[in-house]
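Attaching the record inline, Q. Sequence:
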Amino acid sequence: MKALSVRQPYAWAIIEGGKDIENRTWHSDFRGPVLIHAGLHWHEVGPEALARKMRMAVPCDMPLGGIVGMVEIVDCVTRHPSRWFEGPYGFVLRKPRALTFTPCPGHLGFYDVDQAILAKLNLP
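Structure, as predicted:
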């Protein structure tokens, strides 16, 4: 199974906050389920700034450095009506599902998750 590292608070926003687009500078033909890995470092947009920008409650105690959930990537677009789209490319996300936080290393781009980590996730 593939995973994608996303810095907090955006990993939380994908799984819990209705973020339906993941912006990237690169195109991908990947479609299907992907694990969301919360990176070790925060994005420069912290939880307070995200809360103001998106007018939503955002927790300040988000986990870092592990798998936090799973989504389905259904498209990669260069334009989208979502308030989350900033481009230049956006992975269109559906069916977010929270998973029990499981620590593991992240990587750039899509990457294969170690079998030992997958076993801990207890996926269907």
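The beta strands are 2-8, 21-24, 32-42, 66-77, 89-103, 110-112. Residues 2-121 form a domain with the Archaeosine Trna-guanine Transglycosylase; Chain: A, domain 4 fold (CATH 2.30.130).

More tomorrow.
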